[in-house]
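Study both lines:
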Amino acid sequence: MKKTCPRRKQQVSVRTPVRSPLTAARCIPLAAVALALAACGGDDDKGDQPATGSGKSVELRIVASDRSGERRESRIVCDENEDRPICRTALGLAGFLARAPDRERICTQIYGGPQTARITGTIDGRRIDRRLSRSDGCQIADWDRAQPLIPK
């Protein structure tokens, strides 16, 4: 006769962390606010609003490409008394174009296409040398902001 050991009941212990049911609910709005602030960048100038009759000069050269070999180039030249819409737009973007992009900004990894552009020149005495592309979410946003100046 074969002897068998009596089976013991196995106790299964499942530990679950004790959390307040509101913990997740509290974190979601904070995460949303943090994400929104990161996406906004540190842009505190009012540079996107077109100037009106400001009497400031603009001299820009814009070279755009879609990397297919086709380059499009345009020039924007406005004297101090011109009040054309493109001049007002360029004056409104002066702060944005003169400032280097924030290296610490958090960008989505979304590819927007092979387009590139370089804007050089001066706006109201400010030296402009800005490169644009559509390589990630931040670059796409910058491209969209400068879009009125980029030749089609």
Notes: The radius of gyration is 28 Å.
